[in-house]
Structure formats: C-alpha cells, structure tokens
Amino acid sequence: MMTGNVVFLGRSLTPEQASSPVLSAPYYLVVMMTFFIGALTYRLAEARWPSRGASTLGLPFGLMMLGAELVLKMGWTPQGNSLYPLTIVAYAPMFGVLNAACAAGQLATPTTMTTGHLLTLAASGAKLCRRQKLTHVEKTKVMMSMLVSLSIFAGAVLGGFVYWVSSEAGTHGALLPVAPALALLFWLHDHLAKPRRLAKKLSKLRRAACKSPDSKIGNAEVKPNNDECEAESGEDSTVDLELGGEPPEADATPRAATSAAAGPEKTM
Hints:
Layout: H1 3-12, H2 25-48, H3 53-73, H4 92-104, H5 115-129, H6 136-165, H7 178-193, H8 196-211, E1 216-217, E2 220-221, H9 226-235, H10 255-262
Antiparallel strand pairs: 1-2
Helix pairs in contact: 1-2, 2-3, 2-4, 3-4, 3-7, 5-6, 8-9
C-alpha cells in the first residue's frame, strides 16, 4: 500500500514536480509516518493484549477515520484549504493496523497487495504443470490468494462505480461505511480466531455439569456424558496457558530422596 507513496515521494523531489499534480514531499512523508504509527501501535497492542490488538484499536482509529470523513462530507474543510491534505492523517493509521494485523495475525497474509498472491498462484500452477500434487498448506494458500485477488478486483470495480455515480456531487462521504466495517472485521479477526472468553465459559459449564449431574443452565437440565466427564477430569492436570491458567506446580520432592526414604529393596 505504501509503494505508491514512495514512488510519488521520489517523483516530488524531481524538477518535474512544479508542473505535476503530485503533492509535495512532506505530504507523502506524513502519509508513510502515520501508516507506520498505525502498524507500530498494533504491535504494541498485541504485546499488551495478545490476540486482541486489532479489535482494541479498531474503535478509536475507526472513530478518527469516521470523523475525518464527516468533516469532508459536511464541507468544513474545503478542498482548497491548506488543512485539506492533512485529513489523510486520520485514515492512514487504520490501514496500518489492517496491514499489520493481516500479515502478522491469524490470517498471516497481506490483503492489500496482489503481487505476492500472483507469485503464489504461479508457483502452484507450475507445480501442477509438472503433475505434482499440492499439499494441504499449498491448497490453502492458493485459495487465500485467489480470494484476496478477486476481492481487490471487486473493490476496485466498486470504487470506480461509486466514483462514476457521485462524480458530480463529489465523493466525500463514500468512505463512511468503511470505518465501522473495518472495526467489525477487526473484532471478528481477533475473537473468532481466539475465542478465549467463550472457551472459558464452556469449560466451566462442562465442569459444573460433571460435578453435579442434576445441574441446570437456565431452564434446561444438563446431563453430562460420562466419557466427556472422564476426559474433562483428565484435562484438569494439564492447564491451557492460552486460556489464562497457571502451570501445575512441580513436585518438590526429588525422585532420589523418595527412593532413599523408601529404603533399599530386598533381593532374593
């Protein structure tokens, strides 16, 4: 996403810039810096709240993006105003979080660049041409690359259609649904991939049902399966650290000391 801004930054430093519609070099530096801040903030949020970084930042950055779009829609910052180019500061951090979350989060793939996905499809196509089978991981990558590429194409078509329809009235306000949509997708990205709170509740309900077979949840009577209860009791000894449990304490009595206390074995 920032490749184009780097190209325009280099172009703005040439003598051609005076007669060109591109903006000045500081503008593109600000765009890249705010994008970098968004990606950096996501990394820091992930370190503070594991698997909840995107959903944590979705609301504040989404509100900032939504506010900037409303300012442009209401005409409070006309296009000729000197502050008009700076409205990009409210958009870039959100997309920095988007790129960082997709590349380093549960998807582990960029969703705003097509070049890498085309290379993935080409590599898999070459393997099929050699009559070699694709592994499950390779098939998953092919499906992901196809979906991302088609989604980018569909988004470009939709954007062009919106621009064509609203060319006379202006396109300000066209991104109003984008901010809440991204915030919702950030929440789904985090909570569907790592549903820790839901997993805790289900585990507590299963354990409560195993301890009291006649227990009820609401108006429904719970009748646990004996096999499930045995598996649940076996899982008590191993704690899922990802769900916030504590590791079991190590046995403080050394095995050698236990053998010595038991005394020497009798030999026949």
